Amino acid sequence: MNNFSNFFSDLDKGELKIWDLLAQGVVNKKSKFHTPTLSTINGNMINSRTIILRKVDNKTKMLFFYSDSRSRKVLNIIQNNNVTVHLYEPRFKLQVQLYGHAKIENNSEKTKNIWSSLNSFSKKNYLSALSPGEKIDSLDNIKYNTDNEEAYCNFSLIYFKVTKLECLQLSDIKNIRVEFVYTESSNKKYYMVP
Ligand SMILES: Cc1cc2nc3c(=O)[nH]c(=O)nc-3n(C[C@H](O)[C@H](O)[C@H](O)COP(=O)(O)O)c2cc1C
Known about the structure:
Layout: H1 11-27, E1 37-42, E2 45-50, E3 55-57, E4 62-68, H2 72-79, E5 82-89, E6 94-105, H3 109-117, H4 120-124, H5 148-153, E7 155-169, E8 176-182, E9 187-192
Antiparallel strand pairs: 1-2, 1-5, 3-4, 4-7, 5-6, 6-7, 7-8, 8-9
The structure holds flavin mononucleotide.
């Protein structure tokens, strides 16, 4: 049995461990929790991409991401707020699947404060003259605006409210699958057949 096979021998402790790993993922760039995959719905298609985890709030079961307001993921979320986040941490043989609803915020006091904390390298991500994903004939067509105010207008905070957290942890002895369901009135936790 590996050292980590007992994350979920106690459901309460296992749940805390996952939220702790998520919180560590915000600051630990080497952690797989730092760069999960965010999937959004685009009509009858699914779009998945890597995104940096910026903040975690265990109390409200929220995750936070940053993106360009013009990006496909933001446009997808505005159309359909059902999203999932997925990651696999091989160190723990642990798959985490988060389900929930996302919300976009921009041009607010909160986004202004976050924006002012970003360095100029990060701000450049929001300065492309053309929208992210637009097709171009040549790399020379990638132009950046220099206006800080314009870049700020392109900056979006993505809130992700987790309604279900599912984990599968593999081990030589016994695979363990668990589910944590978060509703306004109650939180539930279950073991599942792996
Ligand atoms: C390691 C890594 C981290 C990334 N972090 C972000 C991020 O925090 N926010 C973001 O919008 N895109 C991020 N991206 C880029 C996205 O994966 C994606 O390519 C881009 O945002 C366009 O996605 P979309 O067209 O589906 O919206 C990251 C990509 C990589 C490889």
